[in-house]
Amino acid sequence: MPTNDTSRVKPERRRLVEILLGGGLIASVISFVYPILRYLVPPPVADLGGDEVVACKKGDLKPNSSKIFRFGNRPALLLLTAEGEYRALSATCTHLSCTVQYRNDLHQIWCACHNGLYDMNGRNVAGPPPRPLEVFQVNLRGDDVVVRRKQGA
Amino acid sequence: MKLLQQAYDWLDERLDFKDLAAPLAKKTVPMHGRSYWYFLGGITLFLFMLQVCTGILLLLYYRPSAGEAFESVQYIMTRVQFGWLVRSIHSWAANLMIFTAFAHMFSVLFLKAYRKPRELTWVTGMLLLFLAMGFGFSGYLLPWNTLAFFATKVGTDIAGQVPVVGKWIMIFLRGGEEVTGATLTRFFGFHVAVLPGITTVLIAGHIFLVQRFGMSVPPEVEERWKAAPAEAREMKFFPSFFLRELMAWYIALAVLGALAALLPWELGTKADPFAPAPLGIKPEWYFLFMFQTLKLIPAKVWLVDGELLGILVFGAAGGLWVLLPFFDGAARGRGRRMILGAGIFALAFILVMTVYGYVAK
User: Fold this and answer.
1) Which site among B59, B81, B87, B88 would you substitute to test the A interface, given the most A Cβ atoms closer than 10 Å to its Cβ?
2) B127 within some domain
3) What is the pTM of this model?
């Protein structure tokens, strides 16, 4: 008969060993997994340009035309209406994040990906977009057309 | 818990775990005074698995081009959380892995574990050692720092001096006449795709052979056991030896963690292909003994180019080393003594030349 029959060890003492071993194992697994999880999260990208950017010079745009400019890390749309009024909006479609464009034939903002349409104020008027485009504030400062995020938006 | 049990039962019904694990349950490890050398192969395997994991993590941020490589490693080390740790572990584990692989090779040699029927285990092991050095050589360049750039220039230049095919090998390695961004792209491809693929297949073969033949018992111990069979001791592989192996892995991990945390691997300065080479360009330590030997050989030995002679001798020695077990059989005692002598000489030579390489200016 084998004398070191493990089934005869008192259960409460085996429990202690199990807790110590298991606890140690869990602790070390956590210490391996935690740095890896933190590593997987990419560091935040510096927001280039901040809240205000010079979109173009006065006179760069003809009436009823537009241009895409860089606002922070995202594209934005500056358009000059036929009446000579500047408007700036986010160029990221609220549907699936394609970049929209101004259609001077329709006088509407159009997303080519899924045929979404916004009016000149960024309201979603046709197609799949669920929300209006974010509208930015446009100021003229000397020769510069300055676009900034609306306060509280 | 019940769900787990059900899942286990479902799989067991189809796969029959007991039958699958039968060879593992039967496997034993001989116990004698030198049994601890059996751990080295497992530790090397553990370090390799660690390299795969940390390598995949590095791939998430690394960019393999001359313009971005250095900056991306810098980004990993300064901006990514725990990035310094991941890269340090990758670098340190690489060095430790080559060290344990060398130690494993010499322990197998001195314990005569290469002898029949284990010749092929030795051959696959030697190929794996060469692959490990290839990993080291290709990985060294990837951060695109000054030291690595010139070490790669020298290393590929040496390969270029091999007669007949040398020039072709050099151009193949460099992706052109010079070490450029094209070299970086190639080395990256070797390091993360070609070498891991071949290595994985060879490791599988190596481990299969180890399982097939079981652990080798040194001839001295074998004779003693034959004379007195009652003295023979063995241990079940699972769980007894396996748990001991796990402890060895834990210790390896502790050493690695301490090294990586206390001595983070340096990045150096970005490589500039048009700057003169700085003082003290040296390869990684595991190439140092060859590098130092090549430096010592005179420029001309009789009519042969000194460098070329060195390369040919090292090439021949490496080739013979792979075939070492096949010299064991022929003239029984003499062959074995010759191998032992060669092993002692090689170990002494590598140690002396490595130390000399470090001390020498």
Assistant:
1) B81
2) yes
3) 0.86
